Amino acid sequence: MNICLILIGGFLVIKIGVVRYFSWAAVLFVLASCSVTPELPQEGYAAISKQHLRELKHWGLDGRISISSPDDSWSANIEWQSVLHGDTIRLSGPLGQGAVVIQLGADRVSIDRGDGQVQRSQDPDAFVVEQLGVFVPVRALKYWVIGLPDPSRAIRYTLQGFEQEDWQVEYKEWQSLAGKAMPRKVTVINDKIKLKLVCDQWVID
Q1: Please, what is the Cα angle at 33 between 30 and 39, to 5 degrees?
Q2: pTM attached to this predicted model
């Protein structure tokens, strides 16, 4: 069952007298309380319970990613597996062509382009810029993709997400996995980069 975020910004008011007004208000309140919203909570990012996200130890996602900048743009399929000791991110084209595998640890990163040579570094963010040609904050992205702010950065909450440093993170849609909300569409933007992630499938443990 998919979960989606729907924001409603209007009110319908019908004046039918004081007694009837409160009667109808009570009925509407009961109906609203009993209504089922299988897609998404309607109050924005702050309304979504995130305790289960903070407790995640192992998770995986299959989806699609696109990154655009003034100089370049590209898109790929993405498979992301996260465990306690690190993350494995696999980017590939159609039918798995041109796969790039990124291994991310606490203080290291490696990139395997499938040519038999694995490049390694102890500066993940700078290394990704060097290898992929665009700056992607991979350390922070590990938190952002699952719906959480990076605990090492200052945060300012917004209606659909939050801002950290010069990055704006918005959760356009959510989906349900075992009754718990997980991101489906995530957008990460700064003044130079726009990253879009669509999470087609989640596996959580």
Answers
A1: 145
A2: 0.75
Q: Are strands 161-164 and 100-104 parallel, antiparallel or unpaired?
A: unpaired
C-alpha to C-alpha distance for 179 and 164, rounded to whole angstroms: 28
Q: Please state, as a whole number, how many other Cβ atoms lie within 10 Å of the Cβ of residue 198.
A: 17
Distance CA 99, CA 90 (A): 7
CB 157 within 8 A of CB 44: no
- Whether the CB-CB separation of 135 and 193 falls below 8 Å is answered with yes
What pLDDT, in 10s, does the model give residues 122-164?
887 788 777 777 788 888 999 999 999 999 999 999 999 999 9
Local structure of 22: helix, strand or coil: helix
CATH for the 47-204 domain, from 2.50.20.10, 3.20.20.60, 3.30.300.20, 2.30.110.10: 2.50.20.10
Q: In the structure, what pLDDT confidence band is assigned to residue 95 with cuts at 50, 70 and 90?
A: low
Name which of 115, 111, 71 is nearest 91 in CA terms.
111
